[in-house]
Amino acid sequence: MEITTRRLSKDELALVRQVADVVWPETFLEILSPEQVAYMMEMMYAPAVMAKEFDEGVAFHGVFDAARPIGYFTMGPYAGKAETMKLHKCYLLSEYHGKGIGSRMLQEAMALAATAGYKHLRLNVNRNNHKAIKAYVRNGFQTVETVDNPIGNGFYMNDYVMEVDVPKSV
Questions:
Q1: Do residues 90 and 109 touch, judged by C-beta distance below 8 A?
Q2: Burial track 91-108 (b if 16+ CB lie within 10 A, e otherwise)
């Protein structure tokens, strides 16, 4: 296993969708309806949506086992909180769970936030995604808020907002 992480170019955003097409059904079909999963996939992973986010400064990072894409995380400024960076997405193929790779991804996101001068890293996680919540807590995140965000079509994202202080940049 040769795990590497790197920032993706705009031309590589399809790699994110490729992994999301596998990860999302595995992660969310026990939590959300198939209709909501399909709706959210298009809302967040349509090529035009990802290209717009990229152009707005969201950084897309791919995680690879040799040349195979196995995960991704995206991050950018958090609206209204100058000292906080937002971890928008963080997903890893289930066959790679339990190997410390998810923690490495979170540690890398924290380091990138610190290097960019941020003091906090914040994320939203579905309140029923217990496996992810445990991983975030294990990596120092704490719940700071509970939110129910309407996303259209009568669907909601019922999330915990979690945050961690990032280490000071050296």
A1: yes
A2: bbbeebeeeebbebbbee
Q: Other CB atoms closer than 10 Å to residue 156's CB: what's the count?
A: 13
How many other CB atoms are found less than 10 A from the CB of residue 146?
Answer: 10
Give the tens place of pLDDT for each residue, 131-155: 999 999 999 999 999 999 999 999 9
- Cα–Cα distance between 161 and 19 in angstroms, integer? 24
How far is 107 from 99, CA to CA, in rounded Å? 14
Nearest to 60 by CA among 70, 50, 49: 50
Q: Locate tokens 């995140």: which residue? A: 141
- Mean pLDDT of the 40-50 span: 96
Out of 3.40.120.10, 3.40.630.30, 3.40.50.170, 3.90.180.10, select the CATH number for domain 3-165. 3.40.630.30
The model's pTM is 0.94
Q: Are 52 and 10 in contact (CB under 8 A)?
A: no
Query: Among candidates 103, 97, 15, 20, which has minimal Cα distance to 64?
Result: 15
Query: What sections of 2-150 are H helices per DSSP?
Result: 13-28, 34-45, 47-55, 101-115, 130-138
